[in-house]
Amino acid sequence: MAEPAALSDPGVPRAGLAVTLRGVTKVYDNGIAALGPLDLDVRKGEFVSLLGPSGCGKSTALRLIAGLSAPTSGSVGVAGPVSANGARHSIGFVFQEPTLMPWATVRENVRLPLKLSRVPAAQAAERVRAALTQVGLADFADAFPRELSGGMKMRVSLARALVTDPDILLMDEPFAALDEITRFRLNNDLLALWRDLRKTVIFVTHSVFESVYLSQRVIVMTARPGRIGAEFRIDAPEPRAEEFRTSADYAGYCRRVSGALEPSCQGQAV
After folding, report:
1. Residue of 136, 148, 167, 255 with fewest CB within 10 Å of its CB?
2. Backbone phi, then psi, for 223, in 5-degree steps?
3. Contacts of 93 (CB under 8 A, 6+ apart)
4. What is the pLDDT of residues 41-64, one digit of tens each?
5. What is the DSSP string of 128-186?
6. Domain 2-89+166-265, CATH number (from 3.40.50.300, 3.40.50.720, 3.40.630.40, 3.90.1150.10)
């Protein structure tokens, strides 16, 4: 669901950057240091994956960027226009679980952020139609969640995030629970959407293979408290397809990313 972004720092990233984190830490009330210090820049239109062991702060970083949580220290800067009420642009957030309303149709689930924002009905209807078309579900607008497969439910969740036309799309392990065939298909569809819409995407995953296939840049995080342990630019030709997934270049990138990930996983459940 799309949520308004909140800044911990009134400044915004310099030109060309969508997100800037500077010295960001997160310590919970129970004393657990979950994250940081973390410094990260994400360029506008870039596809970046955060990869690391469970509990290293990947999801925490997304929540800080979205403004759903405040950092203990440091600053989070998010670029974008400021609306009349002083809020910054919306951020689309896709969670690991689809979190759909079971009593509502696909159309009603996707319309929810617009309803909460009091978008006029006619305008909302057109935006919902466009979002469902983007994710390939135009023919399922009147279906209920119980009638959908796991992959289709995730497409609804993605449409709900896209319906507000956010500049930044945050995705927290959205395909982790899906079977491999469905996951591959959704990876391909997500890349096609990214190429068409040119959103900034920050994608959290446990999968080396998924991160290399999708991303322009893979950030490998250390065990808690999460920091940047390594960074890899994936210089693969676009558009990516099965030829890349079965190529020697892809295998090589996966080996290098895996090698950087292994030290981060020592003593951690993954």
Report:
1. 255
2. -65, 160
3. 1, 2, 3, 62, 66, 68, 161, 170, 171, 172
4. 999 999 999 999 888 899 999 999
5. HHHHHHHTT-GGGTT--GGGS-HHHHHHHHHHHHHTT--SEEEEESTTTTS-HHHHHHH
6. 3.40.50.300
